[in-house]
Amino acid sequence: MGREDEAKEYFVKLNDMFNGNIYVELQRHDFEEERKSEPFMISLAYEHNVPLVATNNVVFIDTSYFEAHEAMLCIKDKTVLDNQDREKSNLNFYFKSSKEMKELFKDIPEALENTVKIAKRTHFKINRLGPVLPKISEDEPQQLRKQAREGLERRILKHKVATTKEDYFKRLEYELDVIISMKFAGYFLIVADFIQWSHDNNVPVGPGRGSGAGSMVAWALRITDIDPIRFGLLFERFLNPERVSMPDFDVDFCKDGREETIKYVCDKYGHDKVAQIITYGQMKAKAVVRDVGRVLNMSYGAVDKIAKLIPMKDENGKEIVLKKALELVPELKELLDSDEDVKKLFDIALKLEGLHRNSGVHAAGIVIGNKPLPEIVPLYKDPASDMPVTQFNLKYIEDTSLVKFDFLGLKTLTILKQAVELIGKDAEFLSTIPYDDGKTFDLLSLGDTDAVFQFESEGMKDVLRRIKPDKFEDLIAIVSLYRPGPMGNIPSYIARKHGKEEVDCLYPSLEPILSETYGIIIYQEQVMQIAQVMAGYSLGGADLLRRAMGKKIAAEMEKQKDIFIDGAVARGVDVEKATSIFALMAKFAEYGFNKSHAAAYSWVAYQTAYLKAHHRLEFMCASMNNEKSDTDKLSMFRKDSENAGIKVLPPHVNHSEDTFVPEDGSIRYALSAIKGVGENAAIEVVRARKEGGEFKSLSDFLKRVDIKIANRKAIEGMIMAGVFDCFDLNRKKMLYNLDAMMAYSAQILEEKQSNQMSFLGLDKVSSDFELVEIDDKAERSMTNHEKLELEKKVVGFF
Known about the structure:
The protein has 798 residues and is α/β, with parallel strands linked by helices. The longest helix is centred in the last third of the chain and has 20 residues, at 595-614.
């Protein structure tokens, strides 16, 4: 009996229990249409979230919703609807009415009474506390002041500051007063502590991310690495005393060292007090179509064709939903109308779309408690993670009073670290490079930016060539402008920079704010400063204005408009001028960029450009090491290097390392970048060579390398890439003998492990391995074309 027949029989059976006067129709082509006086069916449908359509005294139930529930179970269990042994839903799983429960428990009525007693005893309201953080010092405010003042002294001694020392300390003390009054001293100390540990343990940390780069205290504590006064960054964009909310430092770490810092945090505060944050994956338009197609056992090709017709976004740039996709794509509607299988697929997919499909772990979010986390929040054990995970996701975790810390992995920091090590400099080298290096700006102006962070795309290269940046502020502007919306201002920025268009700073008092960007409002901070200078806002109040503009909060905008115009008029600004400037601010605030974030990321971009301009060989080696699995990127980097006169040497059994390395002004190809070889096999080859010297022959290689690590697939990849060409052996012949080579090497390994001697007291396989000739003479030699094809397959280029 099928599930739908089972459901139908169940409904019919219930007729005897209920005598209502409402008829029900099962609205589905594969159900026999009939009417039953079944009020219970309505209750059942309601409990399963099945929509009801009522006409007079007839209620229609679309039973495909029950089928959708079955499909959901199949998605969870990775099976198909046709599988008779799969888990199936039970129509008894619903919230029963009081009448039904009394009937079920008529022999023990006290059981129902006890449920009410339990409910009353467990009913309580959770009072939200302040931020729950471990105590890092007995007197955190004093500790913060001490560390920040000492840190700023070191910064001023080391760096050329933009104004007087007094100005820096005045800003520092103001920020400290705000931070301490808002009771966030502990938060700053915790972040500063794990960042300092990272610096001390050779884990590169980014210069900042987000609005936190606008804090002088953060700069003094080395949380960030951008001087906020030099670049006009505002603390109030990060922490607003007029709108109390938690500060939020998103911290970038070298992707290879991020886990070390997280381990330090777990060790310091207790493994039971640190957890990752859960995420819940939703079934989005494309994904739900693929999932439902699979459980319906439709062919992959048919489902793939449908999924590829679904656009990513609608005409307003919003994430697409299936209903909208059917409106926008005629081909989808045609398939739906002409194919019963496609109709069934969409019938189910439309009902499942948006539901949670699976749980995962947030890429960066970590919470740290002041006591064992099970006492604060329910936890979950993710099979892919050693750390516990909170059952509340990012949206709700703050309601538990836990504070989120973001530990992000940034590949570019790994590239910078490796390049600096290859150059032979210490970890502090990049923090000392000048902001105005001519050679770096020449490279950027030429668009020579393959592998340069933020500036790799063809569109960015074109913008760089047209703008011809000659100061660091240009890079901040480019990073902020090159986005949908503000991109339309790029031509004007270029024309004004090069004197082809007049610079208009809107009002004399705004010139210090807008002259850096040639009169164009680019940054959120500029909107705040205009409100401060022109209308007398505090910077905290200006941040509220900026938020209202960015979120298009109409009521708040109208209120702020009156405040702005009144303030401007009181300072001698004409009403019409004030009104027009407010309108301009509102327009730009919709897509204005956070300058603090742009400045910090421009610094990372500038560092990569500096290394490419001054230490191209080492920088390209590091870049290639971080793209070893992407043959397209490797091919691009090879072309870039060779255009600059740096040759990429082929992989070689006696010269290649497991990574890309400089060799006599060239780059030697990495063994681990050959497809099929991998890290472990490459490291094993290098180990054997370092311990026993260069390999003298193929036999020598097969005797000394552990084939359990450098396995058949790895050896095959090395042959195809030409790693053994130095032994003057035919690649085709080696591939023909591959099984015999592996058997020879396995015998050597076995004897090494057993340490046995032959009957005559001699090593059983002391003789060298000899390649067997290919039987077919015509097949013995490998054509140049065949050789190139194999190279392309495992290396990515010829």
